Every structure is written in C-alpha cells, then in structure tokens.
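It would be a great kindness if you could assist me with a short task in structural biology. A protein sequence and the structure tokens that stand for its backbone fold form the material at issue. I should value your view on which stretches of the chain appear to form regular backbone elements. The record follows directly beneath this note.
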Amino acid sequence: MSDAFSPPPSPGGEVSAEQRQWGLFAHLSSLVGLIIPLGNILGPLIIWQVKKDEMPFAADQAKEALNFNITMAIAGIVAWLLIFVLIGFLLLPLIGIAWIVLTILAAIKANGGEAYRYPFALRLIK
C-alpha cells in the first residue's frame, strides 16, 4: 500500500477524547453541504484552520475530510456535465450515496481514535 492511503502515526500515543470528538466533527461538518452551498468544503476547512496548531489528530482528520470533499465536488461537477450524455443520471446518485456513507464511516472511525483515510481522495491539501 502506498503512503497516500496509510494513516499517520498516532500523535504521541493515545488520542484524547477531545481530539476524537473534533475528528468526528471534522468529518460530520461536511454534511452542512446538504444545506449550505460549499458547506461540505467550508466545514472541514474551518475546523482544520482552528485546530491545526493545538490538536494534531483533529487537524489531520479535518484535512482528510477537506481533501475528500474537494474530490467529491470535482466528481459531482464532472457527473453533472455528463448528464448531457445521460451517464450523469446514474453517476450523480452513486456519488451522493458514496459521499454520505464514507463520511459517516470516517466520523465513526475518527470518534474511535483511528486516523481514517478515504479509499479515494485527491490529496490536494498536505
């Protein structure tokens, strides 16, 4: 397996309950995108910016959520464009279901103290 998919080392042993909770919030904050346009990107971005210096685990999970949501936004735009050749009608619901399921799975893993890596995400933010 490549380094792009392997979780980072745990920051100094056990992950505190507060960091696990912020890791959970980092993933779930992307669901704001269901209500607010671009909320799926703004939620993790805000948590990453606020917690990056004080909570390494939470910052890592927020960055992972941010990268995944940027990837999903790009995939959604491409699928929307493919509506004109009819395949987009199939792709858009699949992308939406994958986004929700993987976001919830990531939130559960982060709440358990496990550094989650999405199975497919462009690592644009390092």
Q: What stands out?
A: The first helix runs from residue 17 to 28. The mean pLDDT is 86. Residues 79 and 91 are 6 Å apart (CA to CA).
